[in-house]
Amino acid sequence: MSDAPAILVRDLRKRYGTHEAVRGIDFEVARGEVFGLLGPNGAGKTTTVEILEGYRARSSGIVSVLGHDPGGRPRALRDRVGIVLQSGGMYRHVTVREAVAHWAAMYPHPRDVDEVIELAGLAESADKRTRQLSGGQARRMDFALALVGDPELVFLDEPTTGFDPAARRAAWDTVRALAELGKTVLLTTHYLDEAQALCDRVAIVKDGRIVTEGPPSALGVGSASRHTVTWRDEHGELQTRVTDAPTALLHQLTSAALARGDELRELSVTRPSLEDVYLELTAEEVTDVG
Ligand SMILES: Nc1ncnc2c1ncn2[C@@H]1O[C@H](COP(=O)(O)OP(=O)(O)OP(=O)(O)O)[C@@H](O)[C@H]1O
Question: Fewest beta carbons less than 10 Å away: which of 130, 213, 261, 272?
């Protein structure tokens, strides 16, 4: 049972009136995996995640979360899933420790409150009233609330939107700590560096469909053998060539430079990054694959 996937989605569809926001999505997330859904505004990420959380009903398809259908939010599932809510405003007048302790009491096997506060990076703010927290600290409290029930699976919908760089790094550390604890994480993000830093695998969603899926590094490298070669030529002009045969191009360039007794200044060879692949696949004129 434990090698059954944490999340299984088959031909998931969601219609809002006449608009089909999710048009046949399939993916699986293994236990202990950090999986990212990427894609432009309106692609259908939040709809998908909220169906998995049990907050929205699907139009059709199969969805299994820790072996349960999340529709109707069964109690057996609620205790095992952590959800970082976007608002987190209900505890404005109590301290961080009181809020986390209150939330912990709703779960059958909560984690230690102070340990969770530490894990969320809030040890120094534990006695602050939550309304006095900065935006980044408030978000960390959302993490603490999501973790205190000791969930097996954590949903993070755009966990660092609006964070300053230091708060983002702290949130990344929290996600990594979750992964080290063996938790499964499903996150959505608009930040490709975040996906690259945190996710074992990502799926890029566009217009309600997955257009590609795989480990972030493999998406960048595997999508093309294209290399971009840049150098400054003998006239001081910066040159750029995109090639599938970088070895031959470099041989040609270096031979010519050596023959002139010159250096190839500012030479660089780059492969497509996750960002290049993302932009290519989500560009408006590109039609969907699959
Ligand atoms: N409750 C709703 N009623 C009608 N249409 C909706 C509703 N929720 C979402 N939509 C539409 O469904 C599509 C997908 O929205 P969704 O929020 O899932 O996208 P997203 O990928 O999460 O976008 P973002 O990155 O902007 O959060 C959009 O066109 C959106 O306008």
Answer: 261
- Separation of CA 25 and ligand 1 centre (Å): 15
**Full-model pTM:** 0.79
* 20-78 confidence digits (pLDDT tens): 999 999 999 999 999 999 998 999 999 999 999 999 999 999 999 999 999 988 888 88
Nearest to 27 by CA among 65, 1, 56, 57: 65
Q: Which atom of ligand 1 is nearest to the CA of 44?
A: 18
Residue 8 shares a structural domain with residue 45: yes
Q: In which domain, by residue range, is 72 found?
A: 1-80+152-222+273-290
Shared-domain flag, residues 192 and 284: yes
Strand segments (E) across the chain: 7-16, 19-29, 34-38, 60-65, 81-84, 153-157, 184-189, 201-206, 209-214, 227-232, 238-243, 265-270
Q: Tell me the CA distances in angstroms from 145 to 42, 85, 135, 151, 207, one per residue in order.
A: 28, 9, 15, 11, 32
What distance in angstroms lies between residue 277's CA and the mean position of ligand 1's atoms?
A: 23
